[in-house]
Amino acid sequence: MTGAWRLFVPGRRHLSRVGARAGGLPSPPGPCPFCPGNEREADRVVAVRAGSGFRVRSFRNRFPLVSGASSPPPPSAHSVPAGGHHEVIVESDLHDVDLVDLEPAAMAAVFLMYRDRAAFIASREGVAAVNLFRNRGKRAGSSQPHPHAQVLGSVVPGPAQQLRAAQTESLGRALLTNALEQAGPRLLRERDQLVALTPYAPTHNYETWITLRDPKTTFADESDETVTRFAIFAQEILRAVVAASRRDYNLVFRLPVQTLARDPRAFWYLEVAPRGGSGAGFELSSGMSVVTTMPEVAAEEIRAALTSPT
Ligand SMILES: [Zn+2]
User: Fold this and answer.
1) Fewer beta carbons below 10 Å: N end or C end of the chain?
2) What residues flank ion ligand 1 with Cβ within 5 A?
3) What is the CATH classification number for the domain harbouring 277?
4) pLDDT tens-digit profile of 276-309?
């Protein structure tokens, strides 16, 4: 009916049985698979970044959304093996922290690991799109409370990624320039080419975008120095968004699809999506989001949280 692809992953059925009516952190049974010492042989740590008092590890996902070799489908295909790569980035050895609690060096190490694993996955054969995201809290789809993010490369881009690719090809960076120029009362903070704002037409209440004035085409292209500055800035903004929205949230890196990954018209940005619960029949029937906190109001509250002492 829509031409959009669906991803079938029966191996994750046990992870989706419990609906998230209430927010907050999940409490799954058994030992935490991400605490040091609980790694299984099959998990295969593929990368580690460590410094004084912190360590960031990337694992193969035990229940991957996509796995194995595959090629992008021919245009007429109706189905294709769900090939690709899916890793979990465990952001700290500590179980009871969130990104907002990390020391600056640890925060930078997390974002450098995000960048490096996104670059690695983008380089894998057959990968058409890279997804880099973080779920925090049950309403954001989190099944483990230990702080972690996920990065995967799939052979088929999702409809949102295809739509953005089409917009980027026709309008390019004018999309980003306009969003920044018109931010006005929705501007949250700006420093050294780093910018945070609430978008004109958000999907979620308190939705926030964090970007650079002139980002590289994709996150994997950014230098150590830029990623480090960006990580510290993103942490300040995230802390304020969480304080103002009091909600579970997703972090989503909006990355260009691989066909645009070398195209100077394309660009990346980071989205914070607070999650207050899924929509109802109206959202399903119309495909529209209902936003009850105007982005100008959200911006005021987030700015207040930025400036107030914690
Ligand atoms: Zn843990």
Assistant:
1) N
2) 32, 34-35, 95, 146
3) 3.30.428.10
4) 877 788 888 998 999 999 999 999 999 999 975 5
